[in-house]
Structures are given as C-alpha cells and as structure tokens.
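Me: I'm a chemist; would you kindly supply a protein sequence with its structure tokens?

Assistant:
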Amino acid sequence: MRYVPRRPAFRIVKADADEMSEHYARTLSPAKVEPLERGGHISVEDRHYSAGPFSIWAGMCNSGMKVTFSQPSDAFVLYLPHSSAMEIDVGRKRLLSTPGTAMVGNMARFEKLTIHENRGHIGIAFDKSAMVGQLSQLLDAPVLGDIDLCATLETDSAAGSRLAALGSLLWDCFDVEDEDRVSTTATAHLFQAAMVMILESVPHNYSARLHRPMSPAMPRNLKKAIEYMVANIAEPMSVADIAREAGTSVRALQTAFQQFKDTTPLNFLRQMRLEGVRKALSDDANTLSIAQVARAWGFTHMGRFSAVYHDAFGQTPSETAKLHSRRGIGVSPPRSSDTNR
C-alpha cells in the first residue's frame, strides 16, 4: 500500500497549555500539558511527518514543560536526543533520555514526560500493530502477549550508533522538498529496518526467543505431524488424531512439540492458521470476505477468531484487510470446513 506522508509543521512561542495539549492530541496522544514553572509560557518548534503506521518528527522545546497522558498511544517510540534531557515516568520506573542515549518505549505505559529547557530530539513512532507484526515475522509465530519494551541504549555502542544513524537517515528522507523526497517504498523498508534493529538490540520479554540458537534436526514423527497439519489445515483435528497420523503416542508428540517448537501441538496448529489468515488478508489480490478467509483456514466461530487474531497480531482482521487494496482475482485458499476447530 502507498502511504503519502503528511507534513504538519508546528512552531509556537509563548503557547498556552490548551494549545500544546491540542498539538499532542493531534500528533501523538491525548495529554495535559503544563509549563514547568507556574505561570510560565511554553515555547516549542516541531516538524512532524506521518506515513501510514509510522511517524517521525524533530522537536525543540525551548522552555520546559510537563506532559501527562490521559489516554496513552498504542504505539512504540524511539527518541534520539541531541540536547538537554527528558524524563519519562513508566509506572514506578523513571527513564532518563539524554544526548548519547537512544530511548525506546511502549507509549501505552507512559504516564508523564518531563521535558527540560532546550530539549531537542528526533522521535520516531511505530504503531503497535506494525511492531507486533514485525516481531511475529522474526519469531515465525504469532505474538500472543504485550511487548515489554522500555529501555535505553548507549549511542556509542555498535548497536546504538547504527540505530542513531538509521534514525537520522529516516529524518533526512522526510525533511526535504517534495521533489527530493525518497519513495514511500524505500522509507517503509527503512522503518521496517528500524523495528528489526530495535527488537534485536534492545532487551524485552521476547529477546530470549529471538536469540535462541537453532534447534537440532526435528525427529521424523514431528515432521510427519506438521505435514499432516498443513495438508488438513482447515479440518477439525485433535491431538490424538495428529499423533495417530504421525505414528507416535500423544505423550511423545507433546514432548516433541515442547522441545522443538516451545508450544503444544494445538497451539502450533492455531498459530499456522492465524498466519495463513493474516497472509490472505494482506494479499492485494484477495477478494474473499474476512469470514470466508477465516473459514478457509479452519476458524468457524467468528467472535473467538477475532479475539485470538487481535491477541496474536495487535490488530483486528478488518484492520489488517483495510491496510491493503482489493484488486485482481481472489487467492486460492485451503479446503474449507463447516465444523468447529
């Protein structure tokens, strides 16, 4: 899909709190903004670009201010500061963002920002659905829980310097005249690279799975079980059915899946089905309805399907479908079934 960048520029001297609160609500999240000094004014400059599930901005706060979020954004943010400091309250934890550090955080957990005088930074925001989708690709499995990602990274480290350089490159791609702007395809890949770099470099609750060494060769019965699942993906099946077709016992099959796939047989089956639905809904050529695609991959209870899909990918099936245009002929789905999985 083509994302056309929007380019709001915001510069204000001696702003009142309401004006700044409106700016935050328009660009990031509803918030209450106050000057650090009682009765003081707020002086800020901000150039902000949005492109689909991503946004990037360069901000300078000439005066200090406090930002208290009333409805935190469902997004992840990267701050690359070049002057002064900003403190971020995340529950009982306070993160300090200063020059020489990159700060990554889950904005849904932000409570308050304290921005000090002459603070300047580049900020990049990634919608939760984009970050969850990227992590699920890296894991080759749906992400079924929140991503606990709030940490700092020194920019003089190898990973930190690369992340800072990529952030600067992204900004340079947007903050130019229209005729010099890089294609939306190129910038989308740069945003994707930034997400991969963040997920691989900054510690979070999925890091251990990302960096787990490759497993030894799978046993034959596990391969046969997976082959049976793939061949009959839309059909109802029990663990006993899968074990029988794989020529092994239920207990041995469960042990093999736990050892080599870190999950149960039925969870693995559900993950494959969810990935299949997501790929079909993301296909520009798909003309089937969401219900038809879900049934083609073995889901017949639409309410339950929508809930597990949202848990896995951080967005609803309709949100996935809306990100992609409908053109061409329909995809060929697997054999459908009218029986509950």
